Amino acid sequence: MDFCLLPPDTECRAEVEVKRSRFICLAARTADPPQARAYLADVRHRFPNARHYCSAYVISADTAQGMSHSSDDGEPAGTAGRPILEVLQSLHLTDTQAVVVRYFGGTLLGTGGLVRAYTAAAQKCFSHAPLLRRIRLRHARIRVSLALAGKTEAGLRAGGYLPIHTEYTRSYAEFGFAVTDFHAFSQLAAALSAGGGQISDLGTVLREVPLRGE
Q1: Domains in the chain, ordered, with CATH?
Q2: How much is the pLDDT for 212?
Q3: Burial (0-12, 13-18, 19+ Cβ within 10 Å), 35
Q4: I want to staple 14 with a disulfide (CB 3.0 to 4.6 A). Which of 34, 49, 125, 174 is the partner?
């Protein structure tokens, strides 16, 4: 399964109002719990005097070390942080934090009303967010003689493979690619280098590509 996340240094914001209570959701990328706590502190500073600062985050969901956390910050248990977390999880988000700031409007919403309000704020925040999809590709490398370098690189580019690294030495040239199908890549690379290239699979490489408009 591919997971999604926000671009670095990007914050999304959305607001819903329910019976004069304002629910302002802010979301950003986060790498670890200390960064998540720092972001929550920053939100508290930017939005003073709110009644609640409810939050949730998901970190490293695409690894065995995945973790998640949610906080109701004084709202009835399970009515705020958990609904926010469920939105993050339903969108398959990772390395992402959302904080919903509530300015109380004077009317109690009840547990069901709170769940709906916090859910709606989080959903609205991500509805038009510039999400990225993190995909796992194979890191392919080909090493060829300098005489074959130009033809090999041009042919691979024409085949839709764009190098992620290039290195020229006195005796050879080396090109690295992130590919979905290593077998197809190796067949084309071998043909272009007339069998003279050293083709290697260096393992997994992660890439982030726009989710919307694919």
Answers
A1: 3-130 (3.30.230.30), 133-210 (3.30.70.240)
A2: 65
A3: middle
A4: 125
